[in-house]
Amino acid sequence: MGFPLSSRLMYAAAWCVGRLPLAWAHRLGDAVGALSHRLNTRECKVARRNLELLGHPADAGERDRMLRRILRQTGRNALESLRIWTRPRADNLRLVRSVHGLELLAAAEAAGRGVIVAAPHYGNLELVIEFMAARGPFALVYRTPETEAGDAFLRLARGGENIRLVPAEANAMRPLWKALQAGGAIGITPDQQPKLGGGEFAPFFGRQALTLSLIPRLAERSGATVIFGYAERHEDGHFDLHFDPAPASIASPDLAEATAAMNAGVEAIACRDPSQYQWTYKRWTLRPPGSGETNPYHPDCYRRPRA
């Protein structure tokens, strides 16, 4: 399948940035984070609002220091991702210093009922994808960008060997179900806010958040093993890969119980190093029906239309 010229040009630009030495890329990422704080960009506003909603850190000065660390890690993640998308897999996996929980992953694969890797936005998600695809076919659910060119670029960047991209749409269940029935591995981010009707409200850091029900439904119906997978960044630019067991209740037929268990697992990962979690995402826009709550990000965290 061909890709439009605009997407290929975007990929070419990403390729050029991806040639930077890792230390340079991290310095550039740090600069991008500092600039985001100085300009009070949308990402900066969203991360600040999320910290305010959590009330942590309680001290305003410490909260701002945490915000700066989050934006710095966000900048590093962006530059790392351009590098990973445009380099051979063998080069990318050299960034992995150690792998924890590999025996858990291997046992789940050997069981033959399929593996669901719940990969939250912590550290660098792209390395988890690369590692899983190096082991065999890997079906990845992704949220399609708003533009056709953006979607084509993402498919070009992520569509490496053994990776099958599955758009996060209403019919996503079918190809994922087939992959699990064949004993394969699939990857889903558990901390993306679905559309109304595509999830359950469950507590996340003490606040009700509309939570994806796809992972619990697939786990309950298929008997597949759910494993949390994440790549934790070190200051030197290398990573530890972790594969942690998910609680058994994540496969409960009671979706309220299952989604609460899933969110608790994501919380535990995010708390390892809060600056590496994706706080630049508007996680609590949709509020429970009848709660009387309004979107906490409106209007400050949205781009204002041009006059």
Automatic annotation (TrEMBL):
Coiled-coil intervals, chain numbering: none
A Pfam family hit: Lip_A_acyltrans
Any single GO CC term annotated in Swiss-Prot or TrEMBL for this entry: plasma membrane
Subcellular location: Cell inner membrane
Keyword Magnesium appears in the UniProt entry: no
MF terms (GO), sorted A to Z: acyltransferase activity
Primary localization class, coarse: membrane
Record-level GO BP terms: glycolipid biosynthetic process
Residue ranges, annotated region (Disordered): 288-307
UniProt keywords, alphabetically: Acyltransferase, Cell inner membrane, Cell membrane, Membrane, Transferase
Superkingdom: Bacteria
Keyword Cell membrane on entry: yes
InterPro entries for the chain: LipA_acyltrans (IPR004960)
Protein's name according to its UniProt entry: Lipid A biosynthesis lauroyl acyltransferase
Lineage, opening ranks: Bacteria, Pseudomonadati, Pseudomonadota, Gammaproteobacteria, Lysobacterales
